[in-house]
Specification:
Number of strands of chain B: 8
Number of helices of chain A: 14
Radius of gyration of chain B: 22 Å
Distance between the termini of chain A: 36 Å
CATH architecture of the largest domain in chain B: Alpha-Beta Complex
Number of domains of chain B: 3
Distance between the termini of chain B: 39 Å
Oligomer: heterodimer
Helix content of chain A: 40-55%
Largest sheet of chain B: 3 strands, antiparallel
Order of helices and strands of chain A: EHHEHEHEHEHEEEHHEEHEEHHHEHH
Strand content of chain B: 15-25%
Order of helices and strands of chain B: HEEEHHHHEEHHHHEEHE
Strand content of chain A: 5-15%
Shape of chain B: elongated
CATH class of the largest domain in chain B: Alpha Beta
Strand order of the largest sheet of chain B: 1-2-3
Chain lengths: 397, 275
């Protein structure tokens, strides 16, 4: 394949060259274990400190002791959730959302089997969370509230700072965990000014390599470790530190923080151009979310009466990478739980495509997609059995 | 990323016979928009021969490929021949489909069956009328007859297989235990239909299946098998030649040797490797 237009940055991102450069010495000559006593270990032990500082500044934490390095977003979530619940066994009520990432949802399903009561808060047709419902559900028995900062499929931002206030007002003992995997690098985070207790992030979503993540735990929040063993990460995550990848995470965090302005202006401009270009030129395309309150890089568009995997396969043939909430691509037989929770009509649900940009996305790439999309959709429309319905939509536009 | 065959890719990229036949002699439908895939098949039938076929499909790459190749398989063929086409034939013509996508071939077959039913307008031709055909999976609207047909045509053994072929049980999962019962009953009945063997007859039969069916297949790959002992339904074997020490030998035993013996002798057979 010659052309590659990568618009699936919510799935993973390309490693920034500058990140890789920082990492290489620690994969080669600077291989010392940072816990060792000799001088040779100083550089790797220092590198950890620098990275911790970079991540601290990235999430806006008060001090670097609040940062725990992990292997991925799922480990961050597991450490936070299991760590809190193991430490507070008498309270067995959890509140989360119906649209959380599967890595979190599947964990809560396990807790339900163990007898926990879990409330899943729904969203409206725009993808926005029902905060009133969440507020009502909080009781003295609520051990944990867990809400994602931004949704991976729709890009919708949940007002976690405000939710934190609500949670603490109703029950100061309740711990509030925020899955920030899709917010990190896209919108500013400043946890020290909020009542959020913990957030989880994943490096490969903001141009660090796969295999490294972090968890912010506010001072005073106590968690039991997921991985027991040595004293690393102040006893909260045993295992020799993955120095090169942690260095990469730190550098990526620094670069992402510096790019926030570019994200909010330039990436957003390109996203909006793509979105409007598609919706204007294709009569059976519809925006699946509200146009506002979204991270700047994501758009989710439903193509009515055609199926998502077929669209992705045709896009892939001309070098365009995107993803779909359709059942056929997920390996399960059900379409996206996020789009279903929003009540997206069946006519568009199976034909929903997510484009997610990054700071490396170029204008000519967006122009190419806008140019090619109508031809592909026209071809697929002709195969659809719903010709009368498509005709009605065409006349409407 | 699905592992689609070249043929599947060719057919979703360049689908054959797309469209509608306005004065079709038979129209068949399968699936639904809500379920994520649906298919309309139009047939022109002249003197008992399918002279033209067209399709319209809402679905993924393999659904379009299954529909497209089905039209090629039936154009120019006498109805009697077309009626014999199974979902397995459709998948085979495409050089196979990923297991999770087998339901696309089933949908093609269902639309064909629906079209023929509508052509003959004679429900008696088909073994089960809608009224006594129990609805098993409410999420995907799958009936008992569809599940039984998939089990029979494709020799399905597990609930996961049935989900891959029919989608039944793939959403809320409530009907999984019912599906399990349907599978167990079907295979128990297959066993009953076989003549009851005495222990001696069973030993002779196992021996003959190993010698005549299993061993020649393994020899083709430079391996072989030796029967060591039989105890009730437990068959102890040793793998020889290239099979011994091969890292896929467990698969060979469970998938090939055990299934062959189960089909030929009894479903109860368990194959155990001795070193």
């Amino acid at each position: 394949m010659d052309k590659l237009i990568y618009l699936d940055n919510n799935a993973t991102t390309k490693v920034d060259e500058r990140v890789l450069e920082e990492m290489i010495p620690y994969l080669k000559e600077e291989y010392a274990n940072p816990s060792s006593m000799y001088d040779f270990a100083k550089k790797s032990s220092n590198a950890l400190k620098v990275a911790r500082k970079q991540v601290q500044e990235f999430v806006g934490a008060d001090n670097e002791k609040e940062i725990i390095f992990t292997s991925c977003g799922s480990e961050s979530a597991n450490t936070a959730i299991k760590g809190v619940l193991a430490n507070n066994k008498t309270k067995r009520h959890i509140i989360t959302t119906a649209v959380e990432h599967p890595c979190v949802l599947n964990l809560y399903r396990q807790y339900e089997k163990q007898g926990y009561k879990v409330d899943y808060i729904g969203v409206n047709a725009n993808g926005e969370l029902n905060i009133e419902e969440l507020k009502e559900k909080i009781t003295d028995e609520t051990a944990l509230v867990s809400v994602m900062w931004a949704n991976n499929e729709t890009g919708i931002i949940f007002p976690v700072e405000k939710i934190a206030e609500i949670v603490k007002e109703k029950n100061p003992q309740t711990v509030f965990y925020v899955d920030a995997v899709q917010a990190a690098g896209k919108i500013p985070m400043n946890v020290k000014n909020t009542k959020i207790d913990m957030i989880g992030i994943s490096g490969h979503k903001f141009h660090a390599p796969k295999g490294v993540g972090a968890l912010y735990v506010k001072s005073g929040t106590i968690i039991s470790p997921l991985i027991n063993g040595g004293h690393q990460e102040r006893g909260r995550r045993a295992g020799t530190e993955n120095v090169p990848y942690i260095v990469g995470l730190g550098k990526a965090a620094e670069l992402a923080k510096d790019s926030l302005d570019y994200e909010s202006k330039e990436v957003k401009r390109l996203r909006d151009k793509l979105e409007q270009g598609i919706i204007k030129n294709i009569f059976n395309a519809r925006l699946n979310t509200a146009p506002t309150n979204r991270v700047p890089n994501t758009t989710n568009i439903g193509f009515q009466y055609i199926e998502g995997e077929l669209i992705l396969l045709h896009l892939s043939d001309i070098g365009i990478c995107a993803s779909s909430g359709s059942a056929c691509t997920s390996g399960s037989l059900e379409p996206s739980h996020v789009l279903r929770a929003m009540g997206i009509p069946f006519t568009a649900l199976h034909g929903s495509i997510r484009f997610s940009l990054s700071r490396f996305t170029k204008e000519e790439e967006i122009d190419y997609v806008i140019e090619k999309m109508p031809q592909i959709i026209e071809k697929l429309n002709r195969i659809s059995p719903y010709q009368d319905e498509l005709e009605a939509l065409r006349n409407l536009k | 990323m699905w592992d689609y065959s070249e043929k599947v890719m060719d057919h979703y990229r360049n689908p054959r016979n797309v469209g509608k036949i306005d004065n079709a002699d038979a129209v068949g439908e399968a699936g639904s928009l809500a379920c994520g895939d649906s298919l309309k098949l139009y047939l022109k039938i002249d003197n008992g021969i399918v002279t033209d076929a067209k399709f319209q499909t809402f679905g993924c790459g393999s659904a379009v490929a299954s529909s497209s190749i089905l039209t090629e398989m039936i154009i120019g063929k006498p109805i009697e021949e077309v009626r014999k086409i199974t979902n397995k034939d459709i998948a085979d013509q495409l050089d196979g489909l990923p297991p999770e996508k087998m339901h696309c071939s089933v949908m093609g077959h269902e639309a064909l069956e629906d079209a023929l039913k509508n052509y003959f307008n004679d429900e008696m031709e088909f073994n089960m009328s809608e009224t006594q055909d129990k609805l098993i999976c409410q999420c995907f609207d799958v009936h008992e007859s569809q599940i039984l047909e998939a089990i029979e045509t494709n020799k399905l053994k597990t609930v996961e297989d049935v989900t891959n072929y029919t989608k039944a049980g793939g959403a809320c999962g409530k009907c999984k235990s019912t599906i399990k019962n349907i599978i167990d009953e079907y295979w128990a009945k297959q066993d009953e239909d076989k003549p009851k063997l005495t222990q001696t007859q069973k030993i002779l039969k196992i021996n003959s299946v190993i010698e005549n069916q299993i061993s020649p297949e393994l020899q083709k790959d430079g391996g072989d098998i030796e029967l060591v002992d039989i105890e009730d339904n437990k068959v102890y074997v040793k793998l020889r030649g290239k099979c011994s020490g091969c890292k896929n030998s467990h698969m060979t035993l469970k998938v090939f040797v055990e299934q062959t013996l189960q089909e030929a002798v009894s479903k109860q057979i368990e194959v155990i490797e001795v070193q």
